[in-house]
């Protein structure tokens, strides 16, 4: 199995440019044989609160069509973030695009302070992804700050915990400590994707990374550049490659 964590530098208000960068990194990952790629929190739009309602996506949004095509054509699971509307509710969500042309959503369960003014929290959309003997659970940013989230993932037999986040330089160290602890406590590998540039007018901390089930950091990216972290499993041994 080959996993890819995409670290991007979103352009505020330019969804076309952001999607083009998604396409580029998906293509790059697929050339390396990746089975799955994950992007940061609200990766398509960049992190937004006040403008999220206007930027929101729906489940069968036509703006996802090219991503769906790439998933099918390249046989890769694609996990991308956006504000998502379901009926009258607005969520911070993730789209899971699969090679069989199916699409699912995950919605953020635990919100940061200030997000409740704009978004709803929901446990309704929480799919388990099964891929090459891995049972995969998803998390978005503040989900990892609540230990109950990882505990719930561990209780359902998760072997791979994937988090798309937007953490600042001041917060990324804490994220590392939390994720390493979850990996060790629940014996699950963890893949994390963070922005490498500014979003919502705030610097991000980058350092997208991967921890094995013993809590050991196997590899990570730097704190600023866009690019890919590729992780390959051979039995229980993980190796890494970094690309831009």
Question: Can you offer a commentary on this structure?
Answer:
Helix 4 links the parallel strand 7 (134-140) and strand 8 (160-164). Helix 1 runs parallel beside helix 3. The protein starts with a strand and ends with a strand. The mean pLDDT is 97. It has a single domain (2-243), classed as Carbon-nitrogen hydrolase (Nitrilase/N-carbamoyl-D-aminoacid amidohydrolase, 4-Layer Sandwich). By secondary structure, the chain is α/β, with parallel strands linked by helices. It is 23% helix and 31% strand. The chain has a seven-stranded mixed β-sheet. It has a six-stranded mixed β-sheet with strand order 6-7-8-9-10-11, with helices on one face. It is built from five helices and 13 strands.
Features:
244 residues; alpha/beta; Nitrilase/N-carbamoyl-D-aminoacid amidohydrolase; six-stranded mixed β-sheet; 5 helices; 23% helix
Structure, briefly:
The protein is α/β, with parallel strands linked by helices and 244 residues long. The chain has helices at 15-31, 52-55, 65-74, 147-155, 172-186, and strands at residues 2-7, 36-38, 77-86, 89-97, 103-107, 129-131, 134-140, 160-164, 189-193, 209-211, 217-220, 227-234, 237-243. Helix 1 (15-31) runs parallel beside helix 3.
């Amino acid at each position: 199995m080959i996993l890819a964590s995409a670290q991007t530098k979103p352009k505020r208000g330019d969804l076309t440019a952001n999607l083009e960068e998604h396409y580029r990194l998906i293509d790059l990952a697929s050339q390396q044989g990746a089975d799955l790629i994950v992007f940061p929190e609200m990766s398509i739009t960049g992190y937004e609160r006040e403008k999220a309602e206007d930027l929101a996506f729906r489940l069968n949004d036509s703006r996802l069509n090219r991503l769906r095509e790439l998933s099918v054509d390249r046989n890769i699971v694609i996990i991308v973030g956006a504000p998502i509307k379901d009926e009258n509710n607005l969520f911070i969500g993730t789209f899971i695009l699969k090679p069989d042309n199916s699409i699912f959503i995950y919605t953020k369960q635990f919100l940061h302070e200030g997000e409740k003014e704009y978004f709803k929290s929901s446990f309704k959309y929480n799919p388990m992804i099964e891929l090459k003997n891995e049972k995969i659970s998803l998390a978005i940013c503040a989900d990892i700050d609540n230990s109950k989230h990882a505990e719930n993932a561990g209780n359902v037999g998760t072997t791979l915990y994937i988090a798309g986040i937007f953490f600042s330089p001041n917060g990324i160290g804490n994220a590392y400590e939390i994720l390493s602890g979850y990996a060790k406590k629940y014996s699950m590998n963890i893949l994390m994707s963070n922005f490498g540039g500014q979003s919502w007018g705030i610097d991000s901390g980058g350092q997208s990374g991967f921890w094995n089930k013993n809590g050991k950091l196997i590899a990570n990216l730097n704190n600023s550049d866009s690019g890919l972290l590729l992780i390959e499993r051979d039995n229980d041994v993980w190796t890494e490659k970094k690309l831009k």
